[in-house]
Amino acid sequence: MNRLGNILTPRLGLAVLALVLAAAPFGFANPYQYDVAIHVLINALVAVGLNLLIGYAGQISLGHAGFFGLGAYVTAILSANYGWPVLLSIPAALVVVGVLAFLVARPILRLSGHYLAMATLGLGILISIILRTEAGITGGPDGMVAPPLSIAGMNLYSEVYWYALVAVLLVLTVWLALNLIDSPVGRALRAVHGSEVAAQVVGVHTISYKVLIFVVSAVLAGLGGTLTAHYSGFVTPDLANFIYSIEFVTMVVLGGMASTFGAVIGAVILTLLPQFLTGFDDMEMMIFGLILMVVIIFMPRGLIPALTRVLPGVRR
Prior knowledge:
Helix content is 75%, strand content 3%. The protein has 14 helices and four strands.
């Protein structure tokens, strides 16, 4: 019976997520609400990938906004400056992000603790500086135009179509994350998180698994960047800003580390909360910080792990 519950609970959660995403548009009254929802889903997609790295592998990254911005710029440059079809420039951007992540992962992931945090922070800042200073390629601080996404010869301008596309991609990302967690790779990642030395003793090649999940997480961040670029139609170096890296990490921590659905919930809360605080003018950021502080103090493991104590059937 326990085995059956373990199998059904993630599937049930995935089904509920898909139903919520399918039903949500019926409550949208205008294009602005679609716009906010699209940004929520893109952030959730990035947070799910970052949760694999932080929550399951136990490796901190404060530079994922760099991969987000790099993905946005590579697809914008290829499609706007070189005339690539967007459906080709997006995969090309993900390859570039993945290759960069692979090249830097092995030396960076040999570090741990605050040394690892500082190294990833430096990487993100370096990417941001390059995007800002290489004006001949990136447009510099002013940014550059990103052509619209075209499918079957039709440009996607409508928020309705964009919402449907991003919702499907989020469901697929969550499904892949859940399957990865239940695979031998996921068990190896949890072993690395628990004790890297113990994992090595039992034959787990820890650095290989850390590099793998770092690349997967970076590519998902890059995917979020490419979607943002072609949805908004414009990219600026601010996409790689350090503050966005902190926001992505906060989404994971708020929802609950080592919880895929927690990462989604954290992204929803952290993206929507400022929308409800706009009426407080100068106090907006103070209230925002206070709410986060209260949650972290009273639910240090995040929202979903806190719920599991009350509702044992809730997991992942």
